[in-house]
């Protein structure tokens, strides 16, 4: 039988409806279409049975997808989010349907005390911490560096990198050999992103944070890794960019489409 190979020109670009949210970091329940957060055909093998994972930004987007996947593998989940209460409730409900326990905590991880509160509540509820997923982020694109105020710069760094330091620092005394820390960076850490200078800079910082922290903790048997996704259909997209940009999201990738969480 003759085989047919799809060529680059035959790939069909996926187009999302024009939409914008005036809220940061964005609400998943408002997105059309809703992001794909789990593969219902996934067959777990118990990799994380009995573990406890704290996931920042775990209410939606990539954080939600991670929470579902970890729960299917047997972990109890703590999701930390800013103010997306409806999204967090939906995520918590699904995790409990899967059969795992979930603690949802609202708070600003850009403030150091929040991380101490999260760790304290996690230990009180579950008695242990095995996995930290640093994932939360905000984005406020500006055309020029002169348009980025000191207030915006501080906020973006607080959300996108200070929170990673704070949560890791607060949890570290309770991690042990075999524990793991996973940081969400971005492809823009390597390629840059025009008109989103402060966000891109924080993601480059996440890469260096990951590499350096892994060296600091290797002798303790704690693994530190990062992921650097390209464009993914998550709430930060419609909350950050103009509505018409949704029509061509991901067109610059080889697959000519954005990813799904």
Describe the structure.
This protein is of the alpha/beta class. It has a single domain, classed as NAD(P)-binding Rossmann-like Domain (Rossmann fold). Helix content is 36%, strand content 11%. The chain is built from seven helices and six strands; from the N terminus they run βαβαβαβαβααβα. The protein has helices at residues 61-72, 85-98, 112-126, 150-171, 188-191, 197-217, 236-240; strands spanning 52-56, 76-81, 102-106, 131-134, 180-184, 223-227. It has a six-stranded parallel beta sheet with strand order 3-2-1-4-5-6, with helices on both faces. Strand 1 (52-56), helix 1 (61-72) and strand 2 form a beta-alpha-beta unit. Helix 3 packs parallel to helix 4 (150-171). The longest helix is centred in the middle third of the chain and has 22 residues, at 150-171. It is globular. The two termini are 36 Å apart.
CATH superfamily: NAD(P)-binding Rossmann-like Domain
- CATH class reads Alpha Beta
Strand tally: 6
Radius of gyration (CA) equals 19 Å
Structure annotation, total helices: 7
Which parts are unreliable, with pLDDT below 50 for 5 consecutive residues or more?
A: 1-7
In which order are the strands of the major sheet placed? Answer: 3-2-1-4-5-6
The main β sheet shows up as: 6 strands, parallel
Summed up, the domain count is 1
Shape annotation = globular
Average the pLDDT over all residues and give the rounded result: 95
Percent helix among the residues? 25-40%
Query: What fraction of the residues are assigned to beta strands by DSSP?
Result: 5-15%
The CATH architecture would be 3-Layer(aba) Sandwich
* Structural class category: alpha/beta
* Straight-line N-to-C gap: 36 Å
Order of helices and strands: EHEHEHEHEHHEH
CATH domain fold name? Rossmann fold
